[in-house]
Amino acid sequence: MSESTKQIVLAEPRGFCAGVDRAIEIVERALAKFGAPIYVRHEIVHNTYVVNDLKAKGAIFIEDLAEVPPGSTLVFSAHGVSKAVQEEARQRGFDVFDATCPLVTKVHVEVAKLAREGFEFIMIGHKGHPEVEGTMGQLDHGIHLVEDVADVAMVQPGQTDKLAVVTQTTLSVDDAAEIKEAVRRRFPKIQEPKQQDICYATQNRQDAVKVLSRQVDVVIVVGSPTSSNSNRLAELARKLGVPAYMVDNADELQPQWLEGATRVGLTAGASAPELLVEQVVDRVKSLGAVAVQKMDGVQETMKFPLPKGLKL
């Protein structure tokens, strides 16, 4: 195939998941119902375009609740928050709408339930990620973070009779499975969740990249640098032996990445809008692509209800 017949192959599924759709809609509805400004603790989702778009509409993103004036409307980001943040918001009297992804909330509920039964926890996740801080912050003690297999050997829970494992929802499925196997070897009686914590959207997008990577010469992932699930997609393609690059927008795409590539794979993290994918498609076309092929893949139909009080 000559360079002039460069093709784009679009991964399926890609882009927004149900939790991201819901989180953005919560902020937009709050703005429509209560007017600007609406305060949001942390980036609502980890995508530069989405955050800037909501800023332009009147959302103000903060990290410290002390920055929020009394009587304001406050939205918690899709990643979830600790009990301490929830309590501080209550004490400050904000009108709060919680945009935590319901699949993250599921992990929080599980942790609270088992903690009441005397369990300690090992959490598999990335230190400093807001979802990890939110989940670990459901308890004031007895939850231990492991980031890799080496950490499993070092962790020292207070007891091992009642021990459970939970996982950040946006990890590499394969890496998490490897770490969980190390946890099982060290703590054979550990209790695992009934359903895996890694969310359906993370799983589906990683599965799609596995299929995509066998068909293309290079993979472009649309996603912001702070997006855990987007980073995992690029990592996965590289592990499968395909050069992979992450772009926040079409302007970041470098022509040299596509040199010699006749089939260009394109996907997007769960917080990246389809508009950005379309712009990257146009950019790749301007660099010689003549056709766009859509991969077969899982059709996602998941939808999550909005919090009460946001009906327009």
What descriptors fit this protein?
312 residues, alpha/beta, Cobalt-precorrin-4 Transmethylase, domain 1, Rossmann fold, 10 helices, 38% helix
Offer a concise description of the structure.
By secondary structure, this protein is α/β, with parallel strands linked by helices. It folds into three domains: 3-16 and 200-294, Cobalt-precorrin-4 Transmethylase, domain 1 (3-Layer(aba) Sandwich); 18-100, Rossmann fold; 103-186, 4-hydroxy-3-methylbut-2-enyl diphosphate reductase, catalytic domain (Cobalt-precorrin-4 Transmethylase, domain 1, 3-Layer(aba) Sandwich), CATH 3.40.1010.
Written overview of the protein:
- This protein has three domains: 3-16 and 200-294, 4-hydroxy-3-methylbut-2-enyl diphosphate reductase, catalytic domain (Cobalt-precorrin-4 Transmethylase, domain 1), CATH 3.40.1010; 18-100, Rossmann fold (3-Layer(aba) Sandwich); 103-186, 4-hydroxy-3-methylbut-2-enyl diphosphate reductase, catalytic domain (Cobalt-precorrin-4 Transmethylase, domain 1).
- The protein is built from ten helices and twelve strands.
- By secondary structure, it is of the alpha/beta class.
- The chain is flat, with a radius of gyration of 21 Å.
- Helix content is 38%, strand content 18%.
- It has helices at 18-34, 48-57, 83-92, 102-116, 130-136, 149-154, 173-186, 200-213, 228-239, 274-286; strands at residues 6-10, 38-41, 59-62, 73-76, 95-98, 120-124, 143-146, 163-167, 218-222, 244-247, 263-268, 289-294.
- The strands form three sheets. The chain has a five-stranded parallel beta sheet, with helices on both faces. A four-stranded parallel beta sheet has the order 3-2-4-5. Strands 7-6-8 form a three-stranded parallel beta sheet, with helices on both faces.
- Strand 4, helix 3 and strand 5 form a beta-alpha-beta unit.
